[in-house]
Amino acid sequence: MSAEATAAPRVVAGILLAAGAATRMGRTKQLLPVEGVPMVRRAAEVLRAAGCAPLVVVTGHDAEAVEAALDGLDVRCLRVTDPTAPTSASLHAGLRALGAEVASTVVLLADMVHITAPMVAALVRADATGPAPLQVSRYGDVPAPPLLFRRALWPELLAWTGEGCGKAVVRAHFDEAGVHDWPEAALRDIDTPEDYAALSA
């Protein structure tokens, strides 16, 4: 049997960021139904369907209800104490929760409701076959999640603080990245009641 046949598959984890207080929405947007499924659960199902395992969901605001919306899914929920903290705090918590067996992780925001499992799976496939240390989704000129980071970049992510999903690290390594272009409309997230009304319509 060849070495390729006996080698263990790469472990690609998922980190779903769902801690935010959603102040502009006025209610817990992670729980709003999208196609009949709570927003946070739909995002978790997208990551799982794309092969991301283990999957860590970082919660904060209304954590008990958000975690209840994930009942029955193979995920690990991890709470941050301050849901108003920068995104980096949630990302750092998710990274620290991953075991040594994980080679790469995909990062996604719970309110990116236009992201599909095939989009995430494209990043995972590229990670398995190429040398790039990260895989970046791009919408027009805007790089954004889902993003895939190999473990070699995690120290830089842990050293970075701020909003966004490691944007400084993405900028620093963009020339080395695998870039996946998606329709600009797929970047629309749900921040306000008007956003949600437009989605529901």
Give the overall silhouette.
globular
Oligomer category: single chain
Strand content: 15-25%
Q: Per CATH, which architecture?
A: Alpha-Beta Complex
Domain module tally: 1
Q: What structural class do you assign from the helix and strand content?
A: alpha/beta
Average pLDDT figure: 91
CATH homologous superfamily annotation: Spore Coat Polysaccharide Biosynthesis Protein SpsA, Chain A
The low-confidence parts are 1-5
Distance between the termini: 55 Å
Task: Kindly describe this structure.
By secondary structure, this protein is an alpha/beta fold. It is 32% helix and 23% strand. A hairpin with a 2-residue loop joins strand 7 and strand 8. It is globular, with a radius of gyration of 16 Å.
Task: Give the key terms.
seven-stranded mixed sheet; globular; 201 residues; two-stranded antiparallel ribbon; 8 helices; disordered N terminus; 9 strands; alpha/beta; Spore Coat Polysaccharide Biosynthesis Protein SpsA, Chain A; single chain
Summarize the structure.
The protein is of the alpha/beta class. It contains 8 helices and 9 strands.
Write the layout of secondary structure elements.
Elements: H1 3-6, E1 12-18, E2 33-34, E3 37-38, H2 39-49, E4 55-59, H3 63-68, E5 76-79, H4 87-96, E6 104-109, H5 117-129, E7 134-139, E8 142-150, H6 154-159, H7 167-173, E9 178-182, H8 193-200
Parallel strand pairs: 1-4, 1-6, 4-5, 7-9
Antiparallel strand pairs: 2-3, 6-8, 7-8
Helix pairs in contact: 2-5
